[in-house]
Amino acid sequence: MNTINRRKFIRTGLTGLAGISLLSCSKAINRTGNISDILTVDKVKLGNSGLSVSRIAMGSGTKTNNTGSSQTRLGMNEFTKLAHYAYERGICFFDMADTYKSHPFVGNAIKTLPREKLTILTKMWTHDDGSYRIEPFEKTFDRFRSETGCEYFDIMLMHCMTKGDWHETRKFYMNAFSKAKQEGKIKAIGVSCHNIDALAQAAVNPWVDVIMARINPFETLMDGTPDQIKTILATAKKNGKGVIGMKIFGEGKNITDEERQRSIKFALTEGNIHCMTLGLESIAQMDDAIERVMKSKV
User: Fold this and answer.
1) Could you tell me the domains of the chain?
2) How far apart are CA 39 and CA 278, in angstroms?
3) ∠ at Cα 266 (261, 268), nearest 5°?
4) What digits encode the pLDDT tens for the residues 159-200?
5) Within the chain, what is the greatest distance between any pair of CA atoms?
6) pLDDT per residue as tens digits for the range 42-80
7) Cα angle vertex 98, ends 113, 89, to 5°?
8) Contacts of 298 (CB under 8 A, 6+ apart)
């Protein structure tokens, strides 16, 4: 069977990070996409959540707008191909959200994969600010299940907490999440944070199983300095929270070869996270990220 050199494959296949240099590697990938002697992503325990997840999650919410995200704009077929390739490389953790419009895409991609081997995370918008249609929890939850084909979700987060008092203003949703967890419809619950006070509250709040936090060494699209954020996340880990890092590459703003390597190393060795979600848009980007993560992990 014909094979191509991996460096050439990445160089010719790169679509989303054009012009950057990538790692040299003598591994080979055949033209059918099967993997031969190549690194795969390992699994880690996600705090005290009871879940073991792949160290990398396939994100689906880069540069979102009313047309979806960079990932959904690939189209259903290309998204599914990318998700299946991710699974072959050991990425069995899929990160989505209602506001990304990615539920049907993930749902289509995973319908031929073994559900029991997957970690499916979604996020529910809870802000009644006129920018999003707020529905009763059960109606929204049932819609999520219909859109994804999932009877249950491994992780569900309240999306984009921007104030430190979320634990007081979101009690209705917190109670609904807790009830769904008790009924086995959700395995772990928590928040994604876009504010340092919200993050600090999540780190100590006993309701929270899992936190998604913005972390990179460049302070790009972050909620504080890298030192401030990693200190809060250290507290979260000490309290048994599962910590998922996001904006590792600053949503595509820090993508030079040196920046990507520095970002991955920081996330894995200093960021106080268990795993990370990466919004990748091509097989080339996925290959590069997996190589960097698996060679940098401690």
Assistant:
1) 42-296 (3.20.20.100)
2) 17
3) 100
4) 999 999 999 999 999 999 999 999 999 999 999 999 999 999
5) 61
6) 999 999 999 999 999 999 999 998 889 999 999 999 999
7) 30
8) 268, 269
Q: Which amino acid is at 240?
A: G
pTM for this predicted structure: 0.87
Parallel, antiparallel or unpaired: strands 186-193 and 153-161: parallel
Q: Which two tokens stand for residue 95?
A: 């990160």
Q: Within 13 Å of residue 3, how many CA atoms lie on the same side as its CB?
A: 12
For residue 159 the two structure tokens come to 């999306």
CA gap 92, 118 in Å, rounded: 5
Residues near 237 by Cβ (< 8 Å), separated by ≥ 6? 47, 243, 272, 274
At 63, list the tokens.
Answer: 């540069």
The backbone region for 272, taken as left when phi is positive above 0, alpha when psi lies in -120 to 50, beta otherwise, is left
Radius of gyration of the chain (CA): 18
| Cα–Cα dist 43/20, whole Å | 28
Q: Taking the C-alpha atoms of 86, 156, 263 and 25 in order, what is their torsion angle to the nearest 10 degrees?
A: -10
Q: Is residue 257 exposed (0-12), middle (13-18) or buried (19+ Cβ within 10 Å)? A: middle
